[in-house]
Structure formats: structure tokens, C-alpha cells
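User: For my dataset I need records formatted as: sequence, then C-alpha cells, nothing else. Please produce one.
Assistant:
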Amino acid sequence: MDINKNSKKIVILGLILLMIAGLIVVALKGFNVSLLFGKHEAIELKVGKEVNISQIEEICDDVFQDKKYVAKELEVFGDSLQINVKSITDEEKANLISKVNEKFETEKTVEDLNVYSISNKRIRDVVKPYIMPMLLIMVIVYIYSLIRFRNIQSVSLVMDSILKMILAEAILVSLIAIVRIPVDDFVIFLLMVVVIAKLVSFVNRNERKLAQSVEITNEEK
């Protein structure tokens, strides 16, 4: 019994230290945002011929070497491309046009490139549209739970669930900050999935408890 208590204390202490470390990293360095979330350059070009991602990426690998980039097709007809990169030099612009002309047998010039800067996104601005829908879902689930599980101390169950959910999110966010995982739309989606998963688990677990409680009551009768 003492061993189990000591193990729990060690785990709790470890989690607390993890969250403190996460707070320190965020305070000193902030989150490691992905290319599309940070300040970068967007380059657009109307090729005039059908292009696909593999062709664009092949060109980008040659032009940008070790630089990170995100490439995609533009427009319905797939005859335009967009490349997002941290920065682009005049030499890279000229090389990009040269590679495009070579690959697609066109006669484009550097002047045909539409290059513009995109400012960094604030994570709170990205998360903001999800907050109200998630809070609404949580309120609905917990109101349902207070009514549905009233015979098995529903208030304490709901409070315990809320605390565990906050802890799970805090741990995940701390790990993201410490490991320097690039924050992008997938990471935001993952945080939302954790909330949904915890809610589903909470309801399923207490449905089983309720069923067992009813079964015990029926046996006593």
C-alpha cells in the first residue's frame, strides 16, 4: 500500500515538474509554431499548364535545398501553384522560374511571381473559434451527467472530470512546448480531440457505474 502511495506521489510530482517546465519554456521561448503559423513569404505563380504537388515539391527541393516549405496547387484547373517559405532571395526567385520553365516548357519571368509577406498568427486567435463550440459541448454533456448520474454523486463526478480534463490538456500543452513540436492546425485539432475523448470516456464510465448501481439495487430488493 505504501509503495502504491509513494508511486502516486512520484507521478504527481513528475507531472507538476513537467507543467512547470512547460510554463518556463513558453515564458522564455514561446511555442514553436509551424511555418504557416509564423511570419513567412507566399509565392504564387500561374503556370498556365496543369501542375501537381509532386512536380512542385521536386522543384522546391532543388531551389530551397534545406529550407522548409509548404507547396500546393491553386485554382480549380490546377494550373497555378503557391509556395510558402520562411524567406526567398532574388537568386532563389530566378532559380525557381528557371526550374518551372524547364519542367513545364514555359517562358515565365521573375516578374510573373506574386510574392507577398504573411504575418505570424497568434495561437489564441487560431484557437478562439473553437472555444465556444467546445464549451457548449461540455456544458451539454455535464448538464446531462448531473441529471443522468444524480444517484451516483454526479456533482463530484463532474468536478473530478473537469479537473482531469484540465490536467490532461495542461500536460499535453507542456509536452508540445518542451519537445518543441511545431504548432499547426493538426496540433489544435489534437487538443480538441483530447477534450472530446475525455467527455466520451467520462460518460461511458459512469454509464457502467450507473448500470452496476441499478443492478446491485435490484439484487437487494
